[in-house]
Amino acid sequence: MVRLGIDIGGSGIKGALVDTSTGEMVSERHRIPTPSSRSPLAMTETIALLIEHFNYQGAVGCGFPTIVKNGICTSPGNLSPSWVGVDIKALFTHRTSCDFTIINDADAAGFASIQELNEEQKKGLVLMITVGTGLGSGAFFNGQLIPNFELGQIPYKEYTKIETWAASSAKDREGLSTRKWAKRFNRFLEVIELITAPNLILVGGGISKNWENFKKYITIETQIEASELKNQAGIIGAAIASVNSIN
Ligand code: BGC
């Protein structure tokens, strides 16, 4: 079955058609910059443009960069605070006449990435960490999703949330060298390793494309690797979620 998968991020809204039985993208990825207001109105119009680009009708799976409960946004993440309380599913479905399934973006990326693991690797706690505007985390215990695990929200130093200090947006905002920023990301990994004692950590987002060069900065004990799907995982996982209810 072919479904449209959408991955909404703080800087880009990306979509592609996905064959949900093979988990492979069957179209080019299309990306539209996230409107700078990151507001419900502006972002809904961008979603409509993306659907129009693919000339798509039907069910859509969409990863959304906030806590999502039953299709409703319950925390702003790095979007406009006016998202809180919005029924995202109803809003996008109403605007586009496509039936939307909405899940947290890191949960979607993890859901696709975990399908690439063998049974042994799925055992215990596996964390999917997505690195971008924020730090997303998808948690899977023995292959089962624990939705809305928000490790990027841990307070750190003077920051109300560690993602403000350690996400890749901090590198851009503060003009940090890769080494300086990698040390921060490594510190984030140390903190989550201490708190959750995971068996395996998978990394997605921009750095997963350059993981071979990046991993020298990482010193945690836990096994850590780039997701095989790199930063396509969010699109693929969202499309699959629209077929299999995953939370
Ligand atoms: C949000 C998470 C999201 C992450 C990555 C954070 O600000 O709280 O829900 O997964 O950003 O987009």
Separate helix tally: 8
Name the CATH homologous superfamily of the largest domain.
ATPase, nucleotide binding domain
Profile the largest sheet: 6 strands, mixed
**Roughly what fraction of the amino acids lie in strands?**
25-35%
What does the radius of gyration come to? 17 Å
Q: What ligands does this structure carry?
A: beta-D-glucopyranose
The tally of domains stands at 2
Overall mean confidence score, pLDDT: 96
CATH topology of the largest domain: Nucleotidyltransferase, domain 5
Work out the oligomeric state of the chains in this entry: single chain
CATH hierarchy: architecture of the largest domain: 2-Layer Sandwich
Describe what this molecule looks like in 3D.
The chain has 247 residues and is of the alpha/beta class. It folds into 2 domains: 2-108 and 233-244, 2-Layer Sandwich (Nucleotidyltransferase, domain 5), CATH 3.30.420.40; 118-228, Nucleotidyltransferase, domain 5 (2-Layer Sandwich), CATH 3.30.420. The chain contains 8 helices and 13 strands. The strands form 3 sheets. Strands 1, 2, 3, 4, 5 and 8 form a 6-stranded mixed sheet that branches. The structure holds beta-D-glucopyranose. Beta-D-glucopyranose (BGC) binds at residues 65-67, 75, 77-78, 104-106, 130, 134, 136, 150, 152-153, 163.
Relevant terms:
Nucleotidyltransferase, domain 5; 247 residues; 8 helices; six-stranded mixed β-sheet; binds beta-D-glucopyranose
